[in-house]
Amino acid sequence: MLTFARRAFIVLWKDLLVERRSKETLNALFFFALLLLFLFQFAIGPDRERLAGTLPGLLWLGFILSGLLGLGRTFVVERENDCWEALLLAPGDKSAIYVGKLAGNLLLMLVVEAILVVLFGFFFNLDLRGVLPGLAVVIVLGTVAFAAVGTLFAAMTAQVRARELLFPVLLLPVQAPVLLATVKATEAVLLGEPLGSVAHWLKLLAAADVVYIAVGVLTFDFVLEG
Amino acid sequence: MIRIVGGLALAALAAGLVMAFGVAPRETTQGNVQRIMYLHVPSVWVAYLAFAVVLVASITYLVRRLEAADRLAHASAEVGVLFTGLTIATGSIWGKPTWGTWWTWDARLTSVSILFVMYLGYLLLRGMVEDRERGARYAAVLGIVAAFNIPLVHFSVYWWRTLHQPPSLMKPGPGTMPGVIVAALLVNFAAFSLLYVYFVAKRACLLRREAEAA
Amino acid sequence: MADNWGFVLAAYGLAAVVLLSYWRFLARRERTKTPRARPPRARPGVSDPPAPAVSEPLAPTSGHPRSKPASRPPLQ
């Protein structure tokens, strides 16, 4: 158990180090998130009211689009640097790699999401101070679900031709229930309602998190076989 | 053997038609349009059956590496997508005269649509991985994820439609339906299930021959 | 407008078309797969082509007991 955690942590640490040195993914994602904001504004139009109504949906669309870009690269990076074979040959439980990658992806997405939330607040003039804790809960629950399946599918599609097409095509339908839940919960939270009013959504998200991580841990070995 | 099933399926389909049009009564509020239900509901039941088989076959493949399990999963997914598409189409056709619109995001149509694109993705994955063994493994993993996602889809879509009240029951059933209607549904379900078995058996056979020829 | 038989027909018609098409797809695939299962092997140096070549397509001895492509009636 302890070696599992250690190995997962090593994978996470390596990814964080690489990212800290190059900062390429984070910078690009930040820029992408900013562009998305502009796109949303242009697409919806200047009408404040309409914007306010679609805000939760737009926020999560932004998260998902950024997430697709960021997650899609998780294992491509390994292949580019010839680390892929090393990963495949690593002895023992490969699920530790999954957990490490998942943690790294989760951190990356949370950072991008935090930036997006701030930007949203800035551009659309929202006062988020009161709702931040509730919002944070919803965002974390939803992002874990997204990252859990995303990391698994990223490993799967890394070796497939037309990877960039297949990854979103596989991930998005599976994430549909998560999207429904998070947008509804975010909507309630942004309106100032207490978390208890969306307890069923939160429980669904928590259940999704557990299911996805369990399936990921159990099946990752099969995905990474030589 | 397969032909016997095929023959049975055909007979059962005929019986189903008789039940749907001859035996079942004309519905009071919707009129005869409601008879589409005898197509729509058994279709979706068979689709769920198909995807359950995909789950079991996928797990079996990963654990035991039986080629037959992989072929069963592939065939079942394909036939499942077929019936899912049929569910959506018949649901839409039923909806137009009933609700006045070709499409509506009601609970069943939405859930089934999500299932449709999930398993369509499954078939796409199968088509895009050249290495057979790897394709089988990946598809099995996807089949497992998709199957476990189904209850999540159900609950989320259902709550999404019924706004503010989370239901205490699983889902409100159709209540008590008259026995004749239930009987008609069951006959058609049996017919479609037999058809499913026939299709899957033939498809899996084809897959085996393709694999042998390669 | 209570009955809308047009829609009922459309639904059942569509179902019939879809299911039949899939069945035909399966049947057609099966027909193309069977004769190719045993591709004619080149005779090692014997110059006796005409006789075996003529009889081969007429009676495919492919060893798959279920393959009677031309004469198999549907679903029976």
Give a quick precis of the structure.
Chain A has 226 residues and is mostly helical. Chain A is built from 9 helices and no strands.
Secondary structure topology:
The complex is a heterotrimer of chains A (226), B (214) and C (76).
Chain A: H1 2-22, H2 24-44, H3 48-72, H4 76-80, H5 84-89, H6 95-123, H7 132-157, H8 163-190, H9 199-223
Chain B: H1 2-23, H2 37-64, H3 67-99, H4 107-128, H5 132-161, H6 179-213
Helix pairs in contact in B: 1-6, 2-3, 2-5, 2-6, 3-4, 3-6, 4-5
Chain C: H1 5-33, H2 50-58
Description:
The complex is a heterotrimer of chains A (226), B (214) and C (76). Chain A is 82% helix and 0% strand. Chain A has 226 residues and is mainly α. In chain A, α8 (163-190) runs antiparallel to α9. The two termini of chain A are 24 Å apart. Chain B is mainly alpha-helical and 214 residues long. Chain B has one domain (2-165, 177-213). The radius of gyration of chain B is 19 Å and the shape is globular. Chain C has 76 residues and is mostly helical. The relative contact order of chain C is 0.12. The chains are: A mainly alpha (226), B mainly alpha (214), C mainly alpha (76).
Gap between N and C termini of chain C, in Å?
A: 42 Å
Q: Separation of termini of chain B?
A: 26 Å
Q: What would the average pLDDT of chain B be, to the nearest integer?
A: 85
Order of helices and strands of chain B: HHHHHH
Strand content of chain C: under 5%
Unreliable sequence segments of chain B:
164-173
Helix amount of chain B: over 70%
